[in-house]
Specification:
The complex is a heterodimer of chains A (315) and B (259).
Chain A lengths: L18 E12 L2 E12 L3 E6 L5 H9 L6 E6 L8 H4 L3 E4 L11 H11 L6 H7 L15 H12 L6 E5 L7 H16 L3 E6 L2 H7 L2 E6 L2 E7 H7 L2 E7 L12 E5 L2 E6 L2 H15 L3 E7 L3 H14 L1
Parallel strand pairs in A: 3-7, 3-8, 5-6, 6-7
Antiparallel strand pairs in A: 1-2, 1-4, 8-9, 10-12, 10-13, 11-12
Helix pairs in contact in A: 3-4
Chain B lengths: L7 H18 L1 H22 L6 H34 L2 H6 L5 H29 L8 H24 L7 H4 L1 H13 L18 H12 L14 H21 L7
Helix pairs in contact in B: 1-5, 2-3, 2-5, 3-5, 3-6, 3-8, 3-9, 6-9, 6-10, 8-9, 9-10
Classes of the chains: A alpha/beta (315), B mainly alpha (259).
Protein name (chain B): Transport permease protein
GO molecular function, one term (chain B): ABC-type transporter activity
Main location (chain B): membrane
């Protein structure tokens, strides 16, 4: 797990061959508002990297810089070895982008949209393949304006993966989708990875990051609060156990973790799950205290996400 | 997979052709941008030519009005509306994720308006000839009026998008420059060549009128304001306004409605 600061790194680390994206000390400002406050980011080739965060956390702004659309006031950015602000033309043929919303000419049909895209994108591909892959064949002659939200997202994804680019950037690819459509979108994203492509996506959905991402970063208020592999992030966080104790239990045992008690419900967050749980069970056995709803679990991404948000609110 | 890859120019043409197809599909937009200017231009030619004053002078006024009408309505306002609409729906942003260059996206988005304007000019030439208009005595100032007028109106269109948050608002934000250009182009040709009122030629769009007048009446390089060749202030005005609008557009143009 890495904790970043608002200060940009003094000496940018050279991008190695394994890095699809390397960002050091990125800062973006809109007028007086600091949208991104000095973040570091590394995405390896062939991995799926998820950028999590609430609305306004700076995710889309960060993506726009990677895509070469946003301008930065500080930091260095390397995408496939190219600075997108300096040479977007070299990056364009190697990168596919899904916008967060819109971007369609509403009057065009699905088929016309893909046919136009075929003429506009250097990477070769066929509209029929994408129509079939994203289950839009039956809607090919329908104007984009008449598509459902889910169908539009699928068409959007089809355009992003057109010609199977080296790097695919997806901005909230499943927002507004029903569970089945979301599952199918996940399959398509995983197919990209199996084909050796690198995928960077933003999402509000923790389960999406858990299902897809090799590594994640959680952004909050323009900074990266936590980043790394899911396993490493979770392992570095305190695990917890909880139980409802029977009446008259009296004082709880001394444990190394943090204890929260609301009425008869007890919750302990600890870095020594085994030791504290043993002490707790021993205490209950000695006193004849009945424990109902006893549960023990490692920290979840939801706990960490919640912790990032509440930690910031309290500071 | 297909193997053919298009050239940059064919990509621009593909998007431009899509824009034209969309225009033709929308009956209201097609009528207002294709036929209204022709109707107005024909109306000018018919009515102004019926007056007591005839000859090259009146045809200079008619041609100037036709030019400025097409450039302001067909090019300036259309470009502002089109670019703002495409920005609002994030089509501009989407197109930037294709293999088109930024310049290619803008040329393809605005090219059809310019092409339609050129077709209008050709139709005006036919209408005017049929109604007895003389051939211009000097085509150079007329060519300068066309090229310079287009340059000013295209760049002005991009600048106006900076202060236009939505396509609907374009109907308001384009009005000041529309009236200024239209009125100036109309007034300057009727002011004496050596009058100080000729300073109005510095107003954007005014040289369209002046240069068209010189094309029909001659005296392009005769002494005018401050003893300068008559066409020179107009040409300078077109060049300077195009440069100013280009600079403003380069600095402040927005591709995305968010920021």
């Amino acid at each position: 797990m890495t904790q970043t600061t608002s200060e940009p790194a003094a000496v940018p680390r050279a991008a190695d061959d394994d890095a699809a994206i390397s960002v050091r000390g990125l800062q973006v400002r809109y007028g007086d508002f600091d949208a991104v406050r000095g973040i570091d980011l590394d995405v390896r080739r062939g991995e799926i990297f998820a950028l999590l965060g609430t609305n306004g956390a700076g995710k889309t702004t960060t993506l726009e810089v990677l895509e070469g659309f946003g301008s930065r006031v500080g930091g260095t950015v390397s995408v496939l070895g190219i600075d997108p602000a300096r040479d977007r033309a070299a990056l364009r043929p190697r990168m596919g982008v899904q916008l967060q919303e819109g971007g369609f000419v509403d009057e065009l049909t699905v088929q016309e949209t893909l046919q136009l895209w075929q003429r506009l994108v250097e990477r070769p591909d066929r509209p029929e393949r994408l129509l079939e892959r994203f289950e839009l064949t039956g809607r090919r002659d329908v104007a984009v304006t008449r598509l459902s939200g889910g169908e539009k997202r699928r068409l959007d994804l089809a355009m992003a993966v057109w010609g199977s680019p080296e790097l695919v950037i997806l901005d909230e690819p499943t927002t507004g989708l029903d569970p089945e459509s979301r599952r199918r979108t996940w399959d398509a994203i995983q197919e990209l990875q199996e084909a050796g492509r690198t995928v960077v996506l933003t999402t509000h959905y923790l389960e999406e990051a858990e299902a897809l991402a090799d590594r994640v970063a959680i952004m909050h208020e323009g900074r990266i609060a936590v980043s790394g592999t899911l396993a490493a992030i979770v392992a570095a966080q305190p695990a917890g156990f909880s139980a409802t104790v029977s009446d008259g239990a009296g004082a709880l045992p001394a444990v190394s973790g943090a204890v929260e008690r609301e009425g008869d419900h007890v919750r302990v967050r600890t870095e020594d799950l085994q030791g504290d749980l043993t002490a707790f069970l021993g205490w209950a056995a000695d006193r004849g205290v009945r424990l109902s709803d006893l549960r023990a679990a490692p920290a979840s991404l939801a706990d960490i996400y919640h912790g990032v948000r509440t930690g910031s609110e309290q500071s | 997979m297909t193997t053919a890859t298009a050239s940059p120019a064919s990509r621009v043409l593909a998007l431009g052709a899509a824009e034209v197809r969309l225009l033709l599909r929308n009956r209201t937009a097609a009528i207002s941008s294709l036929f209204l200017p022709i109707a107005f231009g024909g109306f000018f030619a018919f009515t102004f030519n019926q007056g007591a004053v005839g000859g090259p002078g009146i045809w200079a006024t008619i041609a100037a009005l036709q030019l400025v009408l097409t450039f302001t309505m067909g090019v300036y306002i259309t470009i502002t509306q089109t670019v703002v609409a495409r920005r609002q729906t994030r089509v501009l942003k989407r197109m930037r994720t294709s293999s088109l260059s930024d310049a290619g996206v803008l040329v393809a988005t605005t090219g059809p308006a310019v092409a339609i304007a050129v077709v209008h000019l050709a139709l005006y030439a036919v209408i005017n000839s049929l109604l007895g208009a003389p051939f211009p005595v000097d085509v150079v100032p007329l060519a300068l009026a066309v090229v310079g007028g287009l340059a000013v109106c295209v760049t002005a269109g991009f600048v106006t998008t900076i202060v236009t948050p939505s396509p609907e608002r374009a109907q308001i934000t384009t009005l000041p420059l529309f009236f200024v250009m239209f009125a100036a182009a109309f007034v300057v040709p009727v002011v004496a060549v050596d009058s100080w009122w000729q300073a109005l030629v510095l107003v954007p769009g005014a040289p369209i009128g002046l240069l068209t007048q010189l094309a029909f009446t001659g005296g392009t390089w005769a002494p005018g304001l401050l003893g300068l060749p008559a066409a020179l202030p107009g040409v300078l005005s077109l060049v300077v306004w195009t440069a100013v609008f280009t600079l403003l557009a380069q600095r402040r143009f927005r591709w995305d409605p968010r920021h």
